């Protein structure tokens, strides 16, 4: 690993604790146990980004608000195939992805939850700083992040640190050509189950589009007024952790790493909890 | 056969240097074709006197050639080069170019019909770029889509931070040591140096992109298949011991 420092290795040793996997743990129990074991939520104020029909913290659990880029009704239509409309939560803050959270939201939170959000963000460093502004001092940012080795992003190259520095320097606001093209061109019909059961190899070989078609589709998606929703960036767990460590050393993201939980069978994601410093 | 002879013998299979008109980019002290060998012109970003100064530590000043066409970074090549050629030579140039597709299309315009483009390209596995990730197709398309004309922060940062003190010999002889893998700068120092370079307003000379031979050929073939690059591939000579480079000859469609 390019940027692996002694410090990172020490942190890894600290974070990677043996966990005995329980066979029947579902994804939400898994995430929630990591959340409540590492972040105090009782009586504290939280914000969950993109909860859809499965919020990690329900209104019954605590003082939680929900944010998404559409209203509940629009989200029901958009996610008709994957979400239970009866369980879709009401959205407190509707924010289009191009706008800063801290411009819209005037209150501050003890914790912010974002499951499978950061990979959609065009400018990751900018976003981490934006979220920082709506956190109270010492507040937590809980991130569940897909690891590309276990998802349809399996063929995409890992986004290097230099790319994030460049997005931040250019103040990128929307998914740009490189993001959209890779999402279209390299997406493969692979799930975490395929990978854990050694069934991914055959599926990886089947392209969805030729480069020429992917190029034309990318140009179409980028027409003025459109905001394509894609996985802008892709990560593997340790590389993400290493990169966050470097960004902290560059003083570009005002956090410390509070908790890291690597990908566990049968899931496709790792969890990072950052603490506002 | 030396690196220079290897480059030249492949070129001579395609270009008739006695008869054809050629242009070489960045010849410095070692032009592939000398003036007494054929109708060759030379192009670079600086004139001979400035090149002597700039390369004082690494090149013999008496051998640096006169430059016929001084090109301006960020300007189309045709602004400073008003003629067309049967063949073009660019050794260790493409990795410095911020927008590869745009550059190849500009070279296409400088070529006469059926003209040849002779590219010599370092393979990152054998150079100081060894630890840099190979530039993906999406990045190269993105540079073209956004009409990037100067080195960007990601290029400069990687060049500074990921640089390792490695020569092709170290790799071929299997003699990499810890010394070779040392970083020159900490991440914060590399970041501040890169930002300073970027904001200097000057032409920043870095390896914008890095390739392995296989990955470059895949990208090239894909861009040709996509109809973006109007070339055919005539020859590909992979990296061989003890060199750090591969050679590609393209022909204008």
Describe the structure.
The complex is a heterodimer of chains A (277) and B (253). Chain A has helices at 6-15, 27-38, 72-78, 101-104, 124-133, 161-170, 177-186, 192-196, 200-204, 211-221, 237-249; strands at residues 45-49, 63-68, 93-94, 109-115, 135-146, 255-261, 269-276. By secondary structure, chain A is an alpha/beta fold. Chain A has a seven-stranded mixed beta sheet, sandwiched between helices. The model of chain A is unreliable at 17-23 (pLDDT under 50). Chain B has two domains: 3-126 and 208-252, Rossmann fold; 148-199, no CATH class. In chain B, helix 6 packs across helix 9 (187-199). A seven-stranded mixed beta sheet of chain B has the order 3-2-1-4-5-7-6, with helices on both faces. The longest helix of chain B has 13 residues, at 187-199. The mean pLDDT of chain B is 94. In chain B, helix 4 links the parallel strand 4 (85-91) and strand 5. Chain B contains ten helices and seven strands. The two termini of chain B are 32 Å apart.
